[in-house]
Write a structure and sequence with these properties.
The protein has 237 residues and is of the alpha/beta class. It has helices at residues 21-31, 52-60, 75-84, 93-97, 100-109, 142-152, 173-179, 196-202, 213-216, 222-231, and strands at residues 6-10, 13-19, 36-39, 66-69, 88-91, 114-123, 126-131, 136-141, 156-161, 187-190, 208-210. The strands form two sheets. Strands 3, 4, 5, 6, 7, 8, 9, 10 and 11 form a nine-stranded mixed beta sheet that branches. A two-stranded antiparallel ribbon has the order 1-2. The longest helix is centred in the N-terminal third of the chain and has 11 residues, at 21-31.
């Protein structure tokens, strides 16, 4: 989400409007999506808090688990979002800046509430983590940071490949394969989905797969995707 509107781009750039987040959330819930992830992509960059009123309206219109991220920097922020109807929170920039936040959230609400999102790009064969919606490179490396996040109490890792984001040529399978050897908590694959087969490929190494534009712009329908996954021996809800 950007300024109250659902958007999707390529490699975190060239954002295109995709519609009203509340209406899209309701459509996806009714269509059978398993979970919804709602990320305010400019919240950290602009030092803003996630729009709590939008979170509340989304929660009122869906019947599936709902994860919210963007601008979350304290246990108090988490409590506010949970009270608004979120089931989990996703933290990224704030976790890298202050890793203790992961433990604080896990202790206050349980590890199942804390999703650590990692935006990473591969340079010279090494996956480096980025802050503020992919704008600022850090010294953190994907695999070691994911392991540290797990050790500090994260319940899930949401890994987005910035290199694959919006390209629609498939998820970062090699990175996902290696990542599963570093952590034992669920890993959500994000970035690169363009076909239903890409979901099947991701489930070789990930516990869940996240996509945006293929759903936002009607390229893949959720009921047909679930049927395809079942035909390929993937357990779905």
């Amino acid at each position: 989400m950007l300024d109250g509107t659902t958007v999707k781009g390529m490699r975190f750039l060239h954002l295109k409007e995709a519609g009203n987040p509340v209406e899209l959330a309701r459509i996806y819930s009714d269509a059978g999506a398993d979970e919804l992830v709602f990320l305010d992509i400019n919240a950290s960059h602009e030092r803003r808090k996630t729009f709590v009123d939008v979170v509340r309206r989304v929660a009122e219109n869906i019947s599936i688990p709902f994860t919210v991220g963007g601008g979350i920097g304290s246990v108090e922020d988490v409590g506010m979002l949970l009270n608004a109807g979120a089931d989990k929170v996703s933290i990224n920039s704030s976790a890298i800046r202050r890793p203790e936040l992961i433990t604080e959230i896990a202790k206050a609400f349980g590890s199942q509430v804390c999703v650590v999102a990692i935006d990473a790009s591969c340079r010279d064969g090494e996956w480096r983590c980025y802050l503020n919606g992919g704008r600022v490179p850090t010294a953190k490396k994907l695999y070691s940071w994911a392991k540290e996040a797990e050790d500090r109490g994260a319940g899930e890792i949401l890994f987005t490949s910035m290199d694959h984001d919006g390209v629609k040529e498939g998820f970062a399978l090699d990175a996902l394969k290696k990542l599963q050897t570093f952590v034992s908590i669920p890993v959500i694959a994000s970035g690169g989905c363009g076909t239903m087969q890409h979901f099947v490929d991701a489930f070789r190494y990930a516990d869940a797969a996240l996509a945006a534009s293929v759903f936002h712009f009607g390229e893949i329908q959720i009921p047909q995707l679930k049927k395809f996954l079942k035909e390929n021996n993937i357990n779905v809800r």
